[in-house]
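Target chain:
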Amino acid sequence: MDYMNWKRDKSQINGDPADPTVDPITVISEPVAGQDHVPADTGADLHQEELREQNERYLRLAADFENYRKRTERDLDSQIRYAIEKFAVELIGVIDNFDRAITSEDSNTREGLEQISKLFRTFLEQHGITPMVSVGERFNPGEHEAVVCIPSNQEEGMVVEEFCKGYRMHDKIVRCAKVAVSKGKE
C-alpha cells in the first residue's frame, strides 16, 4: 500500500476534514499484497433474499385468503337467498290445489279459497317468489315444459295454454310452467 492511500484511509477512519477529497462515510479498503481478497459474505445478502421470499409468500397468502373470503361470502349469500326453495316448491303445490278448487262451481267455497290463495301469493311474494306469465309468450325450454303441441291460430312455438304456472325465486326459475305449445295452423 502506498503512502497516499494509507494517508487517505487513515483520514477516512479518523474522519479528518482537512482532506476535501475524502468522504468520511466511505471507507476504501485495499487488499493486502499477496492475499486474494474475496468479499466476505456476512449473510446479509442471504438474509435479504429470504426476507424478499417471505414477503412474496405473505402477499400470495393474503391474496388467496381475500379470494377465499369473497368466495365464501358469495356462497353464503346464495345459500341464504335460496334456502327456502324446497319449501316454496311444496307450497306452490298447495296453491295449485287451491286454484283447482277455485274453478269449482260452489260459490261459498270459492270465496274462501280465493282469500286463502291471495294470502299464499302474498306470502310467496314477500320471499321473492313470483309467478311467471306464459300464455302468449314464445316457448322457452328454460322456463316452460311442453306437455302437448296443438294446432292453433297462433304462430308455431307460441304458448297457447298453461296447465301449471311456472314460478321464479328472485332471478332463478324454481318451477317451469307446464304448457301447451302451438304447432301452427294445420
User: Anything to note?
Assistant: The two ends are 114 Å apart (CA to CA).
